[in-house]
Each structure stands twice: as structure tokens, then as C-alpha cells.
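Subject: Interface between my chains keeps coming out wrong

I've been trying for a while to get a sensible model of this assembly. When I model each chain on its own everything looks fine, but I need the whole thing in one frame so I can look at the contacts. Pasting all components below, labels as-is. Any help appreciated, I'm running out of ideas.
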Amino acid sequence: MKKIHIEAVISAATVVLCALALREAWSYEGETGLLPRAVLVISLALTGLWLLKVLVRCARDSGQTITFEAQGFKRVVVLLLAGTALMAGFNTLGFYTTTALVVPLTAFGLGYRSVKGLLLGTLLFVLLLVAVFYFLLKVPLPPELLFPGHGG
Amino acid sequence: MAEIFSHIWAAFPLLFTWSTMLGMLVGTIIGIMVGSLPGLSATMGIAVLIPLTFTMSPATALGMMAGVYNGAMYGGAIPAILLKIPGTPAAIATIFDGYPMAQQGRANLALRISLYSSVLGSSVSALALLLLAPPLAMIALKFGPSDYFWLSVLGLMAIAVLLSDDLVKGLVSACFGLFVGLVGIDPMTGVERFAFDQLALLNGVHIIVMLTGMYAIPPAIDLALRKTDVSLDNAAKVDNGDASYRWRSLSMVWTKSSIIGVVTGIIPALGGNIAALFAWNEQRRSDPDKSKYGKGAPEGVAAAECANNADTAATLIPALTLGIPGNAVAAVIMGALLVHGLTPGPQLFRDDAPITFSFILSMLITSVMMLFVGALGAKAFVNVLRMPTKLLAPMIFVMAAVGVYAINNSMFEVYLMLAFGIVGYAMEKFDIPTAPAVLAVILGPMAEENLRRALLISDNDFVALLTPPISMGLVTLIVLTACLPTIKKLWLARNRRKVDGNAAG
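Reply #2:
Try treating it as a single job with all components included. I did that and got this:
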């Protein structure tokens, strides 16, 4: 797949988003709408120009071809799952518990295989987080599942 | 001058406290570590650190960030010299002579030259900031609302033009940042804009959410997707060094490179990497023995490292005095100032002089701290390169998420940060610069406020925006800046025609 084709889709989507945002901005009255309308009219023109340039390059069939390797694709999937797990876990399990689970699993999924490194690294990191956020900064975080009474 | 000394004296009680000195030391150590890891940068280090400093005093927080900034600019030289991989973009020119020196068994000398050059460059830069910023701020206090409006537009135009090869993409990025800055309640009329009835968006998008998203997440994604870690197997050994080196021979190199670094730093959009390249080129051009450069000339390392560190504090001159960040690091530091209740701009030197001068002096003190930390820990910092990036990447995600959550205890902001991270990553992959977007989030509200104030004063007469002499001058600069890419293309084409003509003749 050519990178320019992906860029064409992204630039087209940006044009549509700018048009929708401009429609919203047009409903703002008086000076409230002054800068939003100006910014979005300019954005629409610029993104339209960007799309035009990309379409011209597509017609010339120029640009880099992106090849998806299985390993690279796997790492992307691991990252997406890790991000989702972190978001879901922070509210339900707590920051420290989620970190203790997701960080080593993500590193393992990305290809880091040293069990000693995973355990030691995760332990030191969680201890650092607790030291900084709980003892030093006293930042209130969501309640912890594994350590009830901590996190806040 | 007397006023500057009185402000410095007032800053001492804030600066010389245990917490601030410790903050500066910790920041310097973290900065060198962040700088020495390829893929991470001072911008990223400061962006992740800002939320962690909320509960600290402004002096301690800003001192820590000064340490990270200075430390990272030196830290980038370590892998550049030992592995031919720049730790930060500013260390690219250090490779030219640093790596060959290491290959010749002079790694320790190269590291020492880069350390002393970095310390000197940072110190000169901090002194330049101390001496130039206050008078410039006094001049800037004479600017009116229309002048500030055009100054914001000039800042945006300069960044969009100079930081990208494609003007359209640079301006698209700037418009994205302007749009993000518009989200929330209009401060003048109280009307909701682009909040779509979401409570979490009514207060707008916090600058730290966007900064952390766009500068911490993309490097973490890059680290995670990297195929192999940096290997130290082929790294040059750090030997015991060349004890008899004539350090005085570098005095002229340091002088010229410091000046180049400071001047480059003041100009928006030029960064440490440009300063280092200019200085290396100039050193080679002015040396009678040009052939030694690129083959292990100590003067080449000294020029590059001195200039890239002389760029650091100088970059903050337009940011602190005019409120116009000249590059991404300046934008992040401005974000840090805003978070700690300080509004960048000329009024900073009038209303918050002690803390402002405390920050400027922190840039100087952390330069000196870098000397001791770098000298004692040179071999230890090399081992930072052993850190497994696959383990580091999720840790950066977590640090960024916890830091952003700490701002307002809002999971929505954490989701928003991740969304900005994905957008920032995509922007990088499609050659859309992210710096204009971040700068626009800071400059956009300032531009709007001053535009509306100017129109209020002139009774909605748009022509009045162009009548003040300073405004006219700024508009001229804006037009020239916008025409720069075309002028450059025409000039290059003319030169090519000349060369072809000479060759044919």
C-alpha cells in the first residue's frame, strides 16, 4: 500500500472535519464566532489544498510503499491492547495495580524476554511511582484493588 | 543594570533552598539520562515532568526543568560519541568528529570536551538570557494590543514556515493548534465553543494534556515499535583519557560557538541542531587545516557541543519577554510557567521578577552542576543505553497518564492525552510538524484576546490594526516570512542556472 494513498484518506477526512467544525462555528454569534470562523475558513482552504496536492501525487503514482511485517503488526496490536488495558484498568483496578500487570505484559508482548528484567524493572518502577505520587506529591488516585486504602 | 542586580538578590532566597537545589540536581541527572537515550528528548522529558511538579514550589519546579533542559542537551553527546547515534537531534553534529575520536581510542577526551563545551555554552546562554531579557521586556511593555496580535501571528507564521518543508502542512498544523485553543468557554462573552455539551471540555483543553500527548506518547510508540535495542557491543570503550590536552587551544572555538549558539537561539524555529551545524561548519571554514574535520578533530566536537548548549537559554528570550515560544522546548517551558501561575510575557519581569530571575539563575546553576554530574558519572551514564526500550516504552505511557491524571483527577484528560499522542504520531509519520500546533495552542488565545481588545478600542475598525508603526513593521515581517519559501526556491533556481551556465561555458 502506498503511503500517499493513506495520506489522501487522512487529508480528505480532515477536509470533512473542518467543514463540520465550520458549520458549528457559523452558529456562534458576534465576536465569539470571529476567530473560530476565520481559523476554520483558513483551515478548510489549507486542507483542501493539501488534499489537492496529495491527489496530484497519487495521479503521478509517486511515493513510498508501506509494507506491513507480521512482527511490526503484532507490536502495534500489543500497543493498542496495552493502551486499552491501561485505560480500563486505571479506573477499576487502580493505577499501581494496573501498572504492575500491564507494564511487564506489554514489554513481553513487544519482545522483551528477560523474566528477571521484567520483574525487577516493574517492581522498581511501581515503587518509584508509589514513592513519588503517594508519599511525595500525595496525589489522590483511584482506589487500588490489590492494596485497599491506598491510591488516594 | 542596578535593577537586574536587585532582582537577582531578591531571587536568592527562592533559589538557595534545599528543595530547589535538590530539584536542580535531580533534574540535571534526569536530563542527562533522557538526553543519552536515543529517541527521547528534552521536550519529552520536561513534558512528562511538568504534571509531577504541581505540588512543588515554582522555584523548585522550574529549577528541575532547567536541569532537565541543560542536561539533555549534553546527554545527547554520549551515544553520539560512543555509538554514532545522536541522543537528541542537537547532537547530530557531534557525531562528525566525536565518533571518529572514539574510534581512535580517544572516547574519554571526546566526552570531556563535550562536557566542558556544554557547560560553557549553557553558562554563556544563561548569562545572555539574564542580561538581554529584562531590557527586551521593558521594550515589549510598550506594545499595544494590535502589536501583540501581529506578534502572535508572526510567531505562528515563522514556526510554520521555518519548521516544515511544506508550508501548507506547517500552516495546517498551526490551524489545528488554534482550533484546540478555541475549545471551551469564550473568556470574554461566556459562550461555549466546540464543547458539544461535554462538561470536561467546558474549561478547554489543558495545555499540559496536549503537550504530554504530542511529545511524550509518539517517542514512546517509536521505542515500542523499534525492532532492536541499541547494542553496546560495538560501542567505543571509555578509556582513561588524554591527560595532557591543551584546553586553552579551544578558547577561540568556545567564544565563536557560544555567540553562534546564542544568536541562533534567539531566532524562532532554529534549534540546537541548527546552531551546532552552523558552529561546526564555521569552525571548519575558519580553520586553515580543514581536512582534519570529520576525522576526529577535537575542535569539531567543541564547536558543536558549545553551540547546541549556548542555544538553550537563548531560546527562552523571546518566550519569556514576548510570550512567543520559538520552538517546542520553549513552548513546553511556557506551559510549565502557565501551570505554576506565571504568565509568560514582559509582565513576568515586572510582576513576578523574583521567580523569573530564580528560573534564569537556575539555568546558570544547572550548567555548573552538569560539570560535576557529568564528570563523576560519565561511565555510569553510558550504561543508561542498556535500558531495554520495550520495557521503557510502557513505563513512559504510565508516567504520562498518571501525570495528566494528577492535573484535575480526570480520566477524560488521560483519554484526550492518548488521542493527542496518536494524532501526534500520525503527524510525524506524514511529515506534518507538531511544533506549530503546540505553539498555536499558546499563541492562539493570546492573539484572540489582543485582537478583540484592539477592535474594542478602535470601535471595530479593522484598519486601526495596521496603523501603529510597530504593527506595520510586524505585518511586513509576516509577509516576508510567508514569502520565504518562494524566495528560497527562486534563489536556488537562479544559483543552479548560474552553475549550469558556468559548467556549459
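Reply #3:
Confirming on my end. Chain B touches chain A through 48 residues (CB under 8 Å).
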